[in-house]
Amino acid sequence: MGIIADQPLQQHLLQNVIVEEGYEVGVNTHPEKVNAALLRSDTISVWVVNLVDSDAWDDVLEQILDHSCAPVFFGDGKAPDRNSAEFPSWRRRIITKLKEFSDPIAEVKSAPVLDLDALINANRVDPSDVIKLPARFRYANPSQVDHVCVVAASLGGPSPVKEFFDRIPADLPAAFLYAQHIDEGCIDALVASVGRHTELKMELVSEGCQLENGKILVVPVSREIQFQANHTVEILENGWSGPYGPSIDHLFKNVVARYKNMTSAIVFSGMGSDGTLGATSIVEAGGTVWAQDRQSAIEPSMPDSVSEAGYVSFRGSPEQLARKFVEQLLTDTTSLEVTAT
Question: Coiled coil located at which positions (predicted)?
């Protein structure tokens, strides 16, 4: 479910009612943040719109009607206080209407098929093309994580992701999470194929593992993960929200909850719009979101979606993204050192 409401209390009440009934909320936002790309997200099965001051949002209402790919349920104005006599009947109306549109917790869609042959035959980046770090940035303390980059991909993603990682030097002061829409039975092959040439360490998330500089953790397909104060990864019993596993939207929000403005994301090739909703939380926290360009992406709709929503500050090929990432990270690290002195 997606919620659009013009008052924080209305957002809070609607989310509580919807979640209590067994639905999942993918986005809960103010109408001023609504745009066409957000409304076209295939993560949302129903939009719930409740505007107390509807006259002030005529343009937004028109945009919702013009661009939403999902059914739209319009509320009836200001929700009553939770302790009032009117609240139970208001709640019943909301739930009855929602059930006309969608049942709680839709089934997860099939993951994109992994082309193992293409990965196995993918060219290795020449070792001379691995980006060189200045001496003072090498050998970063693995446990002192100051930046987490989430690499996200779906259909057509593994090959460009491999090229990106193949160019990243081992001693870069950053930890990586790799979220790939994939059938769970292919995850070991993904780790072996994408990680076989990179200087970075690459492994599937396991209970008690930690984010470290110079290491890529591959996100599990069927179980949600969260992050503790000491960079330990906690694997939860429940699955991801959203139609695919792992949910990129959900993962972005979980990373931001722990790492705030130390979070960045790069969205590679893929179908659909997973990642567009979660990119909001990264940008609002002060992080950055980049995307693969259309020219190099096998399927550009996923990077296009997050770009059209206005969250992407840079697009490029896998090589350009790798060079820009290293350059930006070293610039940010230098700025922090100057500030500290």
Answer: none
Q: Which residues contact 291 (CB under 8 A, 6 or more apart)?
A: 266, 267, 268, 303, 304, 306, 307, 312, 314, 315
Q: Which CATH superfamily is domain 116-340 in?
A: Methylesterase CheB, C-terminal domain (3.40.50.180)
Tens digit of each residue's pLDDT (9 = 90 or more) over 50-64: 888 878 888 888 899
The verdict on whether 222 is a catalytic residue reads no
Is 166 noted as a catalytic residue in this protein? Answer: no
Residue 161 CA from chain centroid, whole number = 16
Catalytic residue from among 42, 274, 293, 304: 274
Alpha-carbon distance of 147 to 240, in angstroms, equals 24
Cα–Cα distances (Å) from 2 to 31, 68, 256, in that order, read: 12, 11, 20
* 317 given a catalytic annotation: no
Reported as a single tens digit per residue, the pLDDT across 212-247 is 999 999 999 999 999 999 999 999 998 887 677 899
Return the domain boundaries, the chain: 2-101, 116-340
Same fold, 2-101 and 116-340: yes
Residue among 42, 68, 159, 181 flagged as catalytic: 181
Q: How is domain 2-101 classified at the architecture level of CATH?
A: 3-Layer(aba) Sandwich (3.40)
Angle at which helices 318-340 and 158-166 pack, to 10 degrees? Answer: 50
Among residues 154, 193, 241, 305, which one is catalytic?
154
**What is the C-alpha separation between 140 and 137, in angstroms, rounded?**
7
